[in-house]
Amino acid sequence: MKNIYGKIYLMLGFSLAGTSVVTGSVLTERLSGRVITPISLGIMLICLFPFYGVRSIRTAARLKKRDLAVFTLQAGFGIVLFRLFLLTGVGLTSTVEAGILTGTTPAITSILAFLVLKETCHIWTVLGITSSVLGIILIQNSPQNLAAFSFNHVAGNLMVLCAAASESTFNIISRKYREEGNDTELRSVPPMIQMYLVSLIAFLLSLIPGFYKMPVASLSVIGWKEWLALGWYGLVVTALAFIFFFEGVRRSDAYTTAAFSGMIPLTSMLLSLYFLKEPIGLNQWAGGSFIILSMLLIGRQSQKRRQL
Q1: By the 8 A CB rule, do 242 and 75 touch?
Q2: Rounded to an integer, what distance in angstroms lies between the CA atom of residue 251 and that of residue 48?
Q3: What are the EamA domain coordinates in residue numbering (predicted)?
């Protein structure tokens, strides 16, 4: 039952995170990424302060320096760097490709689980990683890309891959420190409070680029659609998705977490088709299929481990 709940939480969390690609595409049309991250986080922190603000401050006061360092790493990789790379990449490549390429997160997470967590890497994981690489090659070599080849397009795809690597690093950090039995303070923090503290740290970190010509004046010219997107980015993509994620990762192993992170590209691709009406070529469908296959193969390893 614990494993079932863990999978449900992970599926919900990563599905909501997948909406960040389309939301980011809408926002980057009018706003810079240096504005989107702190403003969306600020909206979330203000709205949730009456519920979690005081409790989060009290919790932070009793945490060890090591625990706060873990939260800072989670905020840096899972929010600040992920959004910096993703928002930059979405502005340079297509939303469909950006969404599909976030599907490399399971493969990258599996590699890090093997290198950092010393978890056993079986043939299913190797096949999954290989399938993910094939998917990237197919997407990058699609006829649409070759017809309109540009350095910016390739750079955009590389930025999205960096975003996937940041998300993978966040997954590994979360799993590593949740597994340590002597880490009682960190393990006792409720997911809602952890979400709020991580978001608060991310907000402070995201203000650093703001000291360098942050175009805050651009907020005065955006419409209701952009403000709704900012609210969604903060309250749903960040708060709700992170709560589901923290609940799920407590009940799942690293490979299960890696497999379900593939819900991000699946959600973003479907939303791109429905809302943005972006076309998807044969190579992109094939590349996306290979990446989805990689999720299933990597997820199969976690099933095999439970049977042993």
Answers
A1: no
A2: 25
A3: 6-139, 156-299
CA distances, 45 to each of 8, 145, 199 (Å): 26, 40, 8
- Closest by alpha carbon to 82, among 177, 236, 206, 252? 206
What is the rounded CA–CA span in Å between residue 239 and residue 233? 9
pLDDT in tens, 98-157: 877 887 887 888 888 888 887 777 787 788 778 877 877 776 665 554 444 466 778 888
* Residues 243, 260: Cα–Cα separation, whole Å: 15
Nearest CA-CA partner of 300 in 131, 82, 179, 160? 131
Token pair 């703001």 is at which residue? 210
**What one-character-per-residue DSSP string does 67-89 give?**
HHHHHHHHHIIIIIIHHHHHHHH
What is the rounded distance in angstroms from the CA atom of residue 129 to the CA atom of residue 293? 10
Rounded Cα distance, 19 and 68, in Å: 28
Task: Judge residue 2's burial from the number of C-beta atoms within 10 Å of its C-beta, 0-12 exposed, 13-18 middle, 19 or more buried.
Answer: exposed
pLDDT tens, residue by residue, 242-265: 889 888 888 877 767 777 777 787
Render pLDDT for 56-76 as a digit per residue (tens, 0 to 9).
Answer: 999 988 888 888 888 999 999
Distance CA 80, CA 200 (A): 11
Is residue 240 within 8 Å of residue 110, measured between CB atoms? no
How would you label 205-244 residue by residue, b for 16+ Cβ within 10 Å and e otherwise?
Answer: bbeebbeeebeeeeeeebeeebeebbebbbbbbbbbbbbb
Measured in whole angstroms, how far is the alpha carbon of residue 37 from the centre of its chain? 13
Structure letter (DSSP) for residue 101? H
Q: Angle of helix 82-90 relative to helix 2-28, nearest 10 degrees?
A: 50
Structure tokens at 69: 């360092």
Backbone angles phi, psi at 275, to 5 degrees: -90, -40
